[in-house]
Amino acid sequence: MSKSMRAIIAIVITLGIWFSPVPAGVKVQAWHLLALFVGTIVAFILQPLPNGATALISLVLAMLTKTLSISQGLSSFGNSTLWLIVAAFLFAKGFIKTGLGRRIAYMMTQAFGDSTLKLAYAFSLSDLIIAPATPSNTARAGGVLFPIVKSLCLSFNSEPGPTARKLGSFLMLSVFQANAITSAMFMTAMAANPLIAELAKKTFNIDISWGTWFLGAVVPGLIALFVVPYYLYKAYPPEIKHTPEAKDLARAELDKMGPASTAEKIMFGIFILALVLWATSSFTKLNATLVALLGICIMLITKVIDWSDVIEEKSAWDTLIWMGVVIGLAGFLAKFGFIAWLAKTVAVALKGISWITALVVLLLVYMYSHYGFASLTAHVTAMYAAFGAVAIAAGAPAYLVALALAYASNLCAGLTHFATGPAPIYFGAGYVDQPTWWKHGFVISVINMVIWVGIGGIWWKILGLW
Amino acid sequence: MSKSMRAIIAIVITLGIWFSPVPAGVKVQAWHLLALFVGTIVAFILQPLPNGATALISLVLAMLTKTLSISQGLSSFGNSTLWLIVAAFLFAKGFIKTGLGRRIAYMMTQAFGDSTLKLAYAFSLSDLIIAPATPSNTARAGGVLFPIVKSLCLSFNSEPGPTARKLGSFLMLSVFQANAITSAMFMTAMAANPLIAELAKKTFNIDISWGTWFLGAVVPGLIALFVVPYYLYKAYPPEIKHTPEAKDLARAELDKMGPASTAEKIMFGIFILALVLWATSSFTKLNATLVALLGICIMLITKVIDWSDVIEEKSAWDTLIWMGVVIGLAGFLAKFGFIAWLAKTVAVALKGISWITALVVLLLVYMYSHYGFASLTAHVTAMYAAFGAVAIAAGAPAYLVALALAYASNLCAGLTHFATGPAPIYFGAGYVDQPTWWKHGFVISVINMVIWVGIGGIWWKILGLW
């Protein structure tokens, strides 16, 4: 399909929604924003232009039509998650420039390097270990793991382009998808999880303790952490699979690298500092973005990276634009009341249906409505309480509802390349094209639903939650 | 002086202000912000690190010490003037990439090219012609003139670095300084000028019409437009001065370029569209940033520039960071009440002094307090009404006060490299180092004061304003 044809499809869909009758209860402004948002997503999939250009055009159209004011339209460029994403790209730069990333990558390879699948599991395990103590999933996947994953890909000469499929494509997608699962497993593994507990208490009078959350998640979570990388290994296989020689190669490379340089040691110190600050943020109340920016500042002061490294980090600026626009559009879609209207409409449509059917339908709608969100927190804020209340009103056991929706709030993170902070970072690395990202995102969401609702349902029955 | 010595000076000054007693009537938070702001400015001058790194460190310190919250600290990255500056860099990219900038530059050279000073006057004249119809001085100097100036420098092989002084340094500074003068000359030549008229009416009951404004400004304005480029020509001379062969060279180059390409024609169309939309913005109410972004979008759609041109435009991202931080720090300095306190303190100190002395002192404080502002609008909003009221209360003729402060509100734009939107653009081009920028900025502010208050004073007497 030619690029102009693809652009025309996106424009026709936008105009189709824009000029179709506005449902009762929806503001005209919200409806127009929906048209622009859907058009943007269609253009993201069809790619008539790079994402950044598409996003900029959508933003200009939103402001030109007064759907958003100038200050509303630009406000999301000051969003703190957006700057955490930018900072993660710069963190990765420090890892790569000092050679620390290569060193850690070779050490991982030395330990697990005889198979690519094992490497993916090693990363999932690393994520799982720090997850309970790192409430920002973006800091975890973007700040901690991404630089190492990227260094590992580079050390196997797998770069965006013809060599992407050697190792990088599989590993990027696998590590990203595992992060959604670890986020679901602990109340302290994702920023909005404590908010979920709070909403459950306030809205349905259900106390979810840290232990209850983990107990409900541990069985489906561990199964998913095993199954999802394996699915990707089969469905989206890396070209390099068995690497029996890799361990020796890694050992030789480590010998060649010799002892760590000063810059590398400083970078390691900054990394540990950031990890500790991210992990203790529940106590210190230090914002994850601030911690990341502090790390960047120390890198600049100690000359681990130069200012030119910062302004030449194209992927950071690319992501700043397109993710900034998506955060803005999605945010105002909720702010203008569209999401609340959608939740209410679904709720009304479900009246008089058995609770099991109602809960499954609600879970599916809740999960897949995340195609319209650029933030897990925004999704939870807009829909968790309403959907939970409807399910409980339909007769579903309250604990089951509270937990199932809580887990779904995290698992939906794998759907798109803008679903959550780590998504634009791993996508922005350039190893996976957009249709592939979305296709596997959808399949994995189904796998997760089967594991969490199917096996999880039995597990929760054993636990006596329903 | 070593870089660490320079850093220590900035740190000591910051700590000195931070820990010195907070004057009565100033919030502790505002005082701490002042310490960080002054420290940032000192570091901008001494350059222990590039401006972007300094700015990022200041921002992190402000958020780490809770002087600014995370959302306050990052909010200025959504500022609309900031994005107009970013857009101006991208506009210049389109000019240069298509060759349109070179063509216009050669045409200017063909017409005025036998002396560099004449070229500077030609740019001043171009600015003056569009000034009454282009209320955004950033759009005028950044969007319209900057791409042509930059192209002209490049076509004379004058680039940042060793060849900067050939032509670029003089021309950049001269065009920038002339913009401050044209801004002062028309009520419609700078965004905050209508606000000044509004404040004058509301606070001192003085009607400043478009005609009165211009009448008061025309004599000192034209003199300043003649004197300031000449001063720079003598004090900061370009290496290429007389270029009698330049006209022939330009003609030959134009012949060599042949007829305009499609991309060049499109770029010209976009330029004219932007110029018309900027010029008619008083009627259409179209925001200058929106117009600029619209232009960028058309460039992207028509492939005049690619998305990679956008994300590789380092100067845009450099400026986004340091100017974003400065706008934030300066904005909150006003929001936290520090500027209002400063105005009140000056007012109190001036009680019981003759009106001429009072007015001169007030004008000087008003003018040079702009070292603490990153926006003319912010300066006007914070100080115009208070300073005017004090001067009138001291017995100064109301019209004289209203107009003198109005002109000073624009002339202060030449002081720093962050004083107004065009400043970071011309400074960011890299032809003039920071000490030079500030030195000539200060000298020209004195020249302007002498012309506007001295000769202007006599002219206003003739007009019967006092």
The structure class of chain A reads mainly alpha
Shape of chain A: globular
Range of helix content of chain A: over 70%
Low-confidence segments of chain A: none
The largest sheet of chain A, given as strand count, sense and whether it forms a barrel, is: none
Radius of gyration of chain A: 22 Å
Number of strands of chain A: 0
- CA(first)-CA(last) distance of chain A: 51 Å
**Residue-averaged pLDDT of chain A, rounded?**
91
**Count of discrete alpha- or pi-helical segments spanning 4 or more residues of chain A:** 23
Whole-number tally of structural domains of chain A: 1
Regarding quaternary structure, what we see is: homodimer
Strand content of chain A: under 5%
Description:
The structure is a homodimer of 466-residue chains. By secondary structure, chain A is mainly alpha-helical. Chain A has one domain. Helix content of chain A is 74%, strand content 0%. Chain A is built from 23 helices and no strands. The first copy, chain A, has helices spanning 3-19, 28-46, 51-64, 70-75, 80-98, 100-112, 116-130, 137-155, 168-185, 193-204, 210-235, 246-257, 262-279, 281-284, 288-301, 307-311, 314-335, 338-349, 355-368, 376-393, 398-411, 422-428, 434-462. The radius of gyration of chain A is 22 Å and the shape is globular. In chain A, 57% of the residues are buried.
Fill in the keyword field for this structure:
homodimer; mainly alpha; 466 residues
